[in-house]
Amino acid sequence: MLSLLAEAAELRHQLTETRARVAALEKLVDEDPLMPVCNRRAFVRELTRMMAFAGRYGVPASVVYFDVNNMKQINDAHGHAAGDAVLLRVAQILVESVRTTDVVGRLGGDELGVLLVQSDKALADRKAAELAALIERRPISWQGRRVPVSVAFGTYAFHGGENADVVLDAADRAMYRRKTEREPNP
Q1: Domain encompassing residue 82
Q2: What is the DSSP string of 80-112?
Q3: Can you give the pTM of this predicted structure?
């Protein structure tokens, strides 16, 4: 009887360890390796879920597409470690400044996205402008030098029924339009 109890205890211990390893692996698969936000795969999965929710319940939701301005110049002037620090700072500001129900993810390179639950286009535009201003007000210090940071953004509101890739592309195009409109003409 005693060996049966010991065996059961050992199996419970192994099961607990296995669950912990599975949770760690799931986090590795879904989290960006540089920063504690969703990677693109997890972000698109969450976008698809949010689109289904928006369609089913008739509530708006939005995606904001951010692009860090002048990343090449930051990397060239200060090194890639400084560029990584800039990306990490932007991600931290986004995570700290949105609701826990919203989702922040890295879409690739110097591009990040935010899914805003129950947010129409006007609310998404206001929130994106607020986030961009907050990012600009908080430059980083790298090896004793101030590194200014700014972002361009585009928003797209959806109500469900769209394709996730189409939604992301629309937000990306909106960001690109905004970025080119603000660049000075030579």
Answers
A1: 34-182
A2: HHHHHHHHHHHHHHHHHHS-TTSEEEEEETTEE
A3: 0.83
